[in-house]
Design goal:
about 325 residues, Nucleotidyltransferase, domain 5, 2 domains, three-stranded antiparallel β-sheet, about 35% helix, globular
Length: about 325
């Protein structure tokens, strides 16, 4: 029986996974990947082979609630049944923040979990669900080793000028810093890039999806990021606002009497490309089809232009940082 590793990316409504077999040469070969989505509403499961072809699917009835722990149990049970020749030896989790305590991947124990839970107040829309998945695996399979890998670990090479905010030290402390929220993705790209552009040193990379960001790299190391303390800053995203004048937030709190919960919902779930288009946060898929049918396809020029404007702004900031480093 081959030893395997299960990689997990857990969110508020989904648990994505990839199962890999470990060869004698210590290489990882993809066995399958899939996800349980719609947790909390109408859950569904799909799994695909390494070529991307679906091999199995499952739907739950609305009357059958499924939480994150149930999703974890279902994934492991499916692997034990349909990939019986693969023995999962360890689980790796994508976790947003490691904080000052964890500069790199760490073997998870109760102390680690407690430290990660303390960081939920900084970015509650991601961190809490990732920690919940770790707890779910620990409960379902307590003897299975788990390792947490952190997006924020990649930004540790950023110079202080790129990480700091212009706030009093007693306010900023050790936690209020600019962070990198797609660091695992960027680390992979930094390692793969030399195969395609071996002489490239100064590189600007964009991670574009429901969440979006940019990263400026020098010799494969992070120098600057479009994101900030949380996962809102920078490029406008599917439903997240991106960079915004803080005075707008003060105005909403002071004059419109927004609560913090209402403000968080507005910025995370009701803004971004969704509001720029007025139709959908998926500007190139069903959203555009809806817009065309309603004679509103011109609205999609606005999110395109706004994203390009922000892209150019991030590129300019990265170039200024490069000049600063050369002349300091």
């Amino acid at each position: 029986m081959a030893k395997g590793i299960l990689a997990i990316n857990a969110g508020s409504t989904s648990v994505k996974f990839g199962a890999y077999s470990c060869s004698a040469a210590k290489a990882l070969d993809l066995v399958c990947r899939g996800e349980v989505e719609g947790i909390g509403s109408r859950p569904s499961f799909v799994v695909k082979n390494p070529e991307g072809k679906p091999v199995d699917a499952h739907d739950w009835r609305r009357a059958d609630p499924l939480d994150q722990e149930g999703a974890v149990r279902f994934i492991v049970s499916w692997l034990e049944t349909y990939q019986a020749d693969l023995e999962i030896a360890a689980v790796g989790h994508r976790v947003l923040q490691g904080g000052p305590a964890y500069p790199g991947p760490v073997l998870v124990d109760e102390t680690v979990i407690s430290e990660l839970e303390k960081l939920e107040e900084i970015e509650p829309s991601h961190q809490s669900f990732e920690v919940a998945a770790i707890r779910a695996f620990a409960k379902a399979h307590p003897k299975l080793p788990q390792v947490a890998a952190f997006d924020t670990a990649f930004r540790r090479t950023m110079p202080a000028v790129a990480r700091r905010y212009a706030l009093p030290a007693e306010v900023a402390g050790n936690l209020i810093r600019r962070r990198e929220f797609h660091g695992i993705s960027y680390r992979y790209i930094s390692r793969a890039l030399p195969r395609y552009a071996p002489t490239a040193r100064h590189v600007l990379i964009a991670h574009l999806g429901g969440g979006a960001s940019m990263c400026a790299m020098l010799d494969g190391k992070s120098m600057d990021t479009s994101m900030g303390l949380g996962a809102l800053d920078g490029l406008p995203m599917a439903t997240r606002c991106g960079a915004i004048d803080p005075e707008i937030l003060l105005f909403l709190l002071r004059e419109r009497k927004y609560t913090t919960v209402e403000l968080e919902t507005l910025l995370y779930k009701k803004s971004g490309l969704l509001r720029l288009s007025g139709v959908s946060g998926h500007a190139r898929t069903e959203g555009q089809q809806i817009a065309v049918r309603n004679g509103r396809d011109r609205l999609f020029r606005l999110p395109d232009r706004e994203v390009r404007r922000r892209l150019y702004g991030c590129a300019g900031r990265a170039r200024r940082l490069r000049v600063h480093r050369r002349h300091r």
